[in-house]
Amino acid sequence: MTKKWLFLIFIASVLISCGKREAAIIKDGKIITTGSATQLQATYDIAEKTDLKGAYVYPGFIDAHSHFYGLGTFNYAVSLFDISSTEDLVKKCKEFYKQNPKPYLIGRGWDQNKFSNKQYPDNEALSAAFPDIPVLLKRVDGHAALANRKALELANLNIQSKIDGGELLNKDRKLTGILIDNAVEYVERIMPSFTLNEKIQALKEAQKICFENGLSSVCDAGLEPATIMLIDSLQNAGILDIRIYAMIAANDKNVSEWVNKSPIKTDKLNAGSFKMYCDGALGSRGAMLKKPYSDAHNHFGLFVTNAAKAEEYISKIIKSKYQLNTHCIGDSANKLILDLYAKYLQPNNDRRWRIEHAQVLDAPDFEKFAKYKIIPSVQPTHATSDMYWAQDRLGKERIKYAYAYKKLLDQNHWMPLGTDFPVEYVNPMYTFYAAVSRQDAKGFPDKGFESENALTREEALKGMTIWAAKAAFEEHEKGSIEPGKFADFTILSLDLMHAPLLEIRNTKALSVYVAGKKKI
Fold first, then answer.
1. Gap between the Cα atoms of 453 and 406, Å rounded
2. Among the residues of 287-327, which ranges form H helices?
3. Average pLDDT of the chain?
4. pLDDT at residue 36, as a whole number
5. pLDDT tops 50 at residue 81
6. Which of 211, 156, 216 is nearest to 186 (CA)?
7. DSSP 3-state of 348
8. Is the pLDDT of residue 13 over 70?
9. Nearest Cα to 512, choosing from 490, 479, 492, 485?
10. Helix H segments across 133-181?
11. Angstrom distance (rounded) from CA 150 to CA 120
């Protein structure tokens, strides 16, 4: 018999890598063993027992690509996710500003594809409503924004301005206020920074939302080192308990300063990778395509980071201990980065360099993932959010090689899944549902969007757990319920392997445990 420092949790679910088990013994935040409840109680002197009364226990869900800090800052921004017109946009901004008056206004969530004319808004009404303060309203994907005239003026942007890796849209030689990709940064620079207290509150709010949605770990896909160090300090102080895999934003300063430093690795924080952007987003037509957009004559998108700069970063990072993860949406962007990775990576390497999104590919480029062990990191809800208009952008032929998750999975036989929240909703059940059904919340389309690229239930679950852990070099720490791993669990009321898919999508996590401690 052991001393009374053990904790018993009753479990009954299909557990990745160790089959069905009835209970687990936990000590110091880690799993000691699993087995039958009767046997474990006879062997160990249990200090505390938790009976989940028939609920289903899964390894703590992991979001392999999100913007955790960005989610938390939404409290300081007007939400524009549900608007369907410029009039709605301005009305929402006025209502928010009346309750939250500041010398500036920020927002996010609008999508011109929801407007009746499917055209970008202009800033005429917004500038009239807010003539004296800068306003910056980001599109849902964060790769485009609407700025009022005051913001453009303060950022010294005009019709003659040229932005490398970005665009300023104009009509009749007059700026409309629409900024694409790198152009957005010019206005962001003139916006006041969040205070330290606001940053802390944002991180705490993001953790609360993630726990409520059943996540025990998240990846933040691109942070400045100062924010990463703040996260580290809050985790050390016990204020943040969620585990975070943080990608360092790849820019000249960060790459130069960090490639010669050791990655940060604690039980809660893993900052051992860089995040690079190659192109923009498909919805804002910033994704870089090999051939013109089907709905925009002679428009190819743009490279946010050009080939020379991308190779400069790659040539430095390959010599370091860091992983590299690159945002690639369009087929041209994917080809560029796959070929640059291949130039520096050896076949059968274990660097686990990733392509984030891998959204549109040309047929010959798929095999490069397997040949050079490059990992596609995808977000299943992007397919079901974009399916209404993606073919308009790509045409009937290219769409066959877009959102091709099963074909991507077949390259290396494992693949992490995420949401890209707050671009998409936080709930990992939406990820599971979209990956398996390839349908929206109403079950449309009837047979699924390009259903040949649907994942099985087991593949979807692995993508949210063990494969997401592996994508961060953490498969020996978490991602399955096995001895020696962290006691991170997500508790659901249903069996993901057998419950109706729509029922799964609409379910909520009952509770989340991190290191054996209940968080919700």
1. 4
2. 307-317
3. 95
4. 87
5. yes
6. 156
7. coil
8. no
9. 490
10. 149-154
11. 19
* Contact assessment for residue 214 and residue 510, using Cβ atoms and an 8 Å cutoff: no
Residues 6+ apart with CB under 8 A from 86: 115, 121, 122, 125, 126
Contacts of 272 (CB under 8 A, 6+ apart): 263, 264, 265, 321, 322, 323, 473
How confident is the model at residue 404, as a pLDDT?
Answer: 98
Structure tokens at 286: 């910033």
Q: Nearest-5° angle of CA 430, CA 332, CA 388?
A: 35
Query: Start-end ranges of CATH 3.20.20.140 in the chain?
Result: 196-514
pLDDT of residue 2: 44
**CATH fold for the domain made of 103-188:** Diaminopimelate Epimerase; Chain A, domain 1 (3.10.310)
For the cut 70, the answer to whether the pLDDT of residue 414 exceeds it is: yes
Q: What is the mean pLDDT of the segment spanning 190-202?
A: 96
CB 365 within 8 Å of CB 335: yes
- From 2-11, 79-88, 327-336, the region with the lowest mean pLDDT: 2-11
Q: How many CA atoms lie within 13 A of 176 on its CB side?
A: 17
What is the band of 37 on the pLDDT scale with cuts at 50, 70, 90?
A: confident
**Alpha-helix residue ranges (DSSP H) falling in 365-484:** 367-371, 380-386, 390-398, 405-412, 428-437, 457-463, 466-470
**Torsions phi, psi of 287, nearest 5?**
-65, 135
Residue 104 has pLDDT above 70, yes or no: yes
Which CATH number does 196-514 carry?
A: 3.20.20.140
- CATH 3.10.310.70 spans which residues of the chain? 103-188
**Residue the block writes with tokens 């009749």:** 172
299-322 per-position pLDDT tens digit: 999 999 999 999 999 999 999 999
